[in-house]
Amino acid sequence: MTRILSLFALLVGLGTVAPVARADSSMIQASILTGWRQDDGSHVAALQLSMLDGWKTYWRAPGDAGIPPRFDWTGSDNLAAVQITWPTPQSIDQGGLRTIGYSDTVIWPLTLTPSNKGQPIKLAGKIELGVCKDICVPVTLILSQDLPKATQRDPRIVSALAARPYSAQEAGVTSVRCSVSPVEGGLRLRADVTLPHTGGDEIAVIETSNPAIWVAQATTTRQNGTLVAKTEMYHVEGRAFALDRSGLRITVIGDRQAVDIQGCPSN
Asked: Residues 184-194: pLDDT tens digits?
């Protein structure tokens, strides 16, 4: 099993002196891509992470052995909300455990809603994430950058936006049904999703809207045109819980494409 070291790297950004704020360590470099202002007043920027060969970081649902990234934007100016667009991740074998994440370079687009439209935005973030190879190192990135009112789109961010999973409608999903049954201390979930094959050995990652619910790695099979994913869920405090089916999120990842399915009604 992966050994988690109690080591934190504090990476200090260069602020507004350089066009792009950067934070560096021996295994990862991070920068803010300043992006462009949209007609509705929102701003599209991005966080770019570049890792040394063999090092990886994690997706929002990292799998059993991963460390999910956490973001704190409270140091920003004129910022009301941040929406992250997650490019399609990879399935990574980590010591016999399946994790979900990214290697080499990844760009996470950020759609920023200003508190006051038309006014400058300063993006200041504290990002906590795991960077792993033979070991996993928790890393804290601190970045700060003034964002210009540019209108020209950055092709790197445009490409990352296009790399998101397809929606259920875009991917041709025709049916999604979930059934839930009790197990000792939790719930067992079965999701039946009718969609075209996404290529290769498909996996399904299941999330809930309640961060206090732990979701086990799903087993995934195909029955004709239907993907069947089974998992178990438990409350992190070991107590009973209610499952909000509308808050379920199923991401199917294949070799050709990924599909983001939100909500799962009962059979």
From this structure: 999 999 999 99
